[in-house]
Amino acid sequence: MTSIQRGSLTLPISAVGPENPLPPLAGLPDGAGAVDLSEVPADLAAGARYGHVRSMLPYLTQDDYRRAPQESTVDTVVLDNGLLRAVFVPALGGRLWSLTDLVADRELLHVPNLLQPANLALRNAWFAGGVEWNIGTRGHSPFTCAPLHAAQVRGPGGVPALRLWEWERLRGLVFQVDAWLAEDSPVLHVGVRVHNPQPHEVPMYWWSNTAVAETARTRVLAPSTSAFRTHYSGKLSRVDVPVHGELETTYPAGIPDAADFFHDLPDDLDGRPWIAALDETGYGLAQASTGRLRGRKLFCWGESVGGRHWQEWLGGPDTAPYCEIQAGLARTQYEHLPMPAGADWTWVETYGPLRTDPALVHGDWPVAVAEVNRALDETSPAACLHAALHEYAEVTAKLPPVASLSAGSGWGAVERHRRALAKENPLPPESTPFAEDTLGTDQVPWLHLLRTGELPEPDPAVPPSSYVDGADWAVRLAAAPEHWATAYHRGVLAHGAGALDEAADHYRRSLALGSSPWALRALALVAAEQEDQATACTLFRQALAAAPEVWQLAVETVSTLLQAGDPAVALEVLAGLPSSVAAHGRVQLLRVQAHLAAGQPERAAELLRAGIEVPDLREGEISLDHLWAQACPDTPLPAHYDFRMHV
């Protein structure tokens, strides 16, 4: 009998910490157009040019974590049908943390021994392991380290199911993930529904990413003969599968550098795209889906010292190697798809163990693919997937929750109120309720603006705790009684849309109404983007003087001074920082850069040899090895500074 119950997970966790109080106005770390698309088909290139966002507004960045895991407990929801046990963590983006084959007593996913955030997501903080649900734009979801609403619902056939849902603020969408284990089913079913309530088309992105153990003989299979590969050199190009030149593209343990392989699946898959990771015995995890989720990808860290170091950075020194098998709406993660106004998109995925003949799946490619297809016909037949999709889309996805399990954010409730006042299409009322009791302190000022037409005026010395986005909010702020915060938020809205001159006018008005470090900093960012480095440096220093305890502001200030070619002033600013700010790893890294720029390599070498740990080091960042080469040119790079994804 299938059961659903609350549970808990205890392991060492480094807390994500408070959100960065500074809105992400400087854009995404990996900007649009950074990839070379000259060798891909025209339709893929067009999809890759469509739908980019300028920043992650209205979300705030999650970058204030440390590398100090403490034994902690998080709540889980557990599904069990006697054959499989699935453990979900609603508070962490609804991550499917564990999927256990109870018959074989084997874990099917990569499950780390600790939970350590690192700078790999759209909002910075990300952690390894399990299956994650990514929506919004290219990258790890805004909800990776944020809670989703969770409730029990009646699943297909009457079995208990878990529903996870949220209001996605970047695109203005409602999404839900429903998971169930049918009686005697060898696979976990996951139904996904995305609803676009907007009166216009929305660029849509979705990828379900699954971390699996990587052994020396793990083979990742998908029904393709070619893939689009990127290996962080900036070019996306087609490669042959399973062998391209001398490179085995289906055995991740033998791939030297970190790489993505987006399989180019044929259109005639009988409605069941799939990907599987199988070990030397022919056993492993298979993920299949209905046809809408057409993309499949292998990600591997590579066999370099840096690739291995990244895995240890995320999972601890004793972590086992892993790779990821992923499934998405488009062929690659560079693309967005146009989702029509008012559309509902649904699909069904399955996750479960696959038992195959090892001689076949590790043999010739056509035979290996045929063997996986044969095994999938037993566990996830295409006809059963299509039947599951029909029942899910027509019945299950529309049913209301039976019992609440945990709450997500209050932003869906705010949006529900806003739409009612603006006489816009309502959000789906029954299947994904956004209740009043989910409203919190971040939503209070915006709810007050909706109800009274006034935005409460906060203390300008305290950073605003939240932001909004969209034309309707801009109109409401313009109509509200004016004070420093209304002008500042109007500037942020214009800034986020790329209207820099308009944003600067609003920021100056905000400063005239009441000086704040937040408007000074935002105006500095406008000046920097308009290549007025002198003004940017002056404004940043004024902002930092007013908010010296905000380490992120110190990082922005010193970075701008170094970009302006003024290391002496950068060192002066660094010398005046509070000790708690000066000790941050990112600030120490800037101190090394400043000494090098000032012609003081011996001071830089002293700092590097003493040891610097940067908790929010970004994926693909190679600053540590570059700095070491400049400061200590005659000494080999220590392994703990080697994060190079390819050499």
From TrEMBL:
InterPro entries, A to Z = DUF5107, TPR-like_helical_dom_sf
**What SUPFAM superfamilies does the record point to?**
TPR-like (SSF48452)
Query: What organism does this protein naturally occur in?
Result: Crossiella cryophila
Give the protein's recorded name.
Tetratricopeptide (TPR) repeat protein
Q: Which superkingdom does the taxonomy of this entry point to?
A: Bacteria
The DUF5107 domain covers which part of the protein? 53-334
